[in-house]
Structure formats: C-alpha cells, structure tokens
Design brief:
This protein is α+β, with helices and mostly antiparallel strands. The chain has one helix spanning 6-39; strands at residues 59-63, 71-73, 84-87, 96-98, 107-111, 117-123, 144-150, 163-164, 169-170, 176-182, 190-199, 211-217. Helix content is 16%, strand content 28%. The mean pLDDT is 84.
C-alpha cells in the first residue's frame, strides 16, 4: 500500500478541524435555542373548580314526645278549686298520684339546616288543653296549658346568637315567636321547650294535642 503523503494528511486534518468547529457551532446554537425556550414566557392554562351550596332551612325534634303518663289528682294534697301543675322539666309533684311511669321530658329542638333560623311555636288547641279529653267537664280550677323555652348549655339560641323566649306563655292557637337566630353551628344549634299543664278538677280520659314548630331563615 502506498504511503499517505504529508499533503494528504494535512488536508484530512483541516477537514477534521472544520467538521469539529461546525459541530461545536451547531451544538452551541441548539443549547441557546433551548435556553431561550426555558427562560422565555411560558404558556399557561386556567381551570375552574365550582360548587354551589344551597341555603337550607330545616329543624328537627330530637325529642318529639312530652308524656306525663297516667295518674290523677291527689285530693288530700290539692283543693278542688286549685290546679295540680305538671311540668315536663320537673319532678313529679305531690299533688299527682302516678299510676304508671312518670318520666316526662322537654321537647328538644335542633337546627339541622345551614342558616340561622327564627322558630315559632303553636298548638292545635288554644289555652284549654283539656278540650281533647274524653270527659271535658271542668268542675273547679283554672286549667291552663303553657310553654317556655329552656336554654341548653350549648347556648344555640342564647345571648351570643339570638334570643330565646324563656317566659311562660299560653298557647293561643296562633304561632308565637319562640327563638330568633337559632345557630346553625352543629355544636350550638339546639334548645329545649318545657311544657306545663295546670290540671283542674273534672277532666278524665286521654288528653293530647299536637305542638307545631316552624322555622324561617333569619334576615
């Protein structure tokens, strides 16, 4: 094989250097273009997360039954012309002879909606609860049927939130404001309602009626 001349070697060396410089140039240019893309303004996309929560006005009675049980007036303790007072939040009075289980408890009302609510109370009869008894003849005494709000420790309708009517009020056959701004916070959203019966002389039989609570969103 013929030896490669010095001139040929020189030519090959020049060609190799040119190729190397060209490769370096294009490599540097590519890096620059990539760098420009990285450091330039980035494309963006925007999405939206949505939810719509309805306002819900709702109340429930956790205890919906005030049951004084069966019994009768103790005539040796209370005079015919006086009433024997039964109160759902109090112990059995001495004027009442119990013939069954005496364990009444207050109504327990809770706001299970998600807005503050005003609550009213009404009854299917007016003040005379004993109109619903089997025998309604009242011989003596002044019968009465009353309600009163009773705040719980949670204070759902207390001074921090609204106003609870804790005074003794007669049922009148019309809705009466019981609580304003009952809280919707689960930890402070309830209160009790005490029921009192002034039992006169005369009525006998099964006496009952419905108590109706209504709620409306507070302004």
């Amino acid at each position: 094989m013929d030896e490669i001349s010095n001139k040929t070697l020189a030519t090959l060396l020049v060609v190799a250097i040119v190729i190397s410089l060209a490769g370096t140039f294009f490599a540097m240019r590519g890096v620059s273009q990539v760098t420009n893309v990285i450091t330039g303004a980035l494309p963006t996309a925007t999405g939206t997360t949505k939810v719509y929560i309805n306002q819900t006005v709702s109340i429930t009675l956790r205890n919906n039954n005030v049951d004084f049980g069966a019994g009768y007036r103790n005539s040796s303790v209370v005079a015919d012309a006086a009433e024997c007072n039964l109160t759902s939040s109090a112990a059995q009075p001495s004027c009442w002879v119990n013939t069954g289980t005496y364990n009444p408890s207050d109504f327990w009302l809770e706001n299970d909606g998600n807005v503050y609510a005003n609550v009213t109370i009404n009854s299917t009869v007016a003040a005379n609860y004993f109109n619903t008894c089997g025998t309604t003849t009242i011989i003596a005494g002044d019968p009465d049927y009353t309600w009163a709000g009773k705040e719980l420790a949670s204070g759902g309708c207390g001074a921090a939130y609204g106003t609870l009517d804790t005074s003794e009020g007669q049922f009148t056959g019309a809705h009466q404001l019981l609580c304003t701004n009952l809280s919707a916070d689960d930890s402070v959203d309830d209160f009790n309602v005490t029921i009192k019966l002034y039992v006169p002389t005369g009525p006998s039989g099964q006496c009952d009626n419905n108590v109706v609570f209504t709620a409306a969103r507070s302004s």
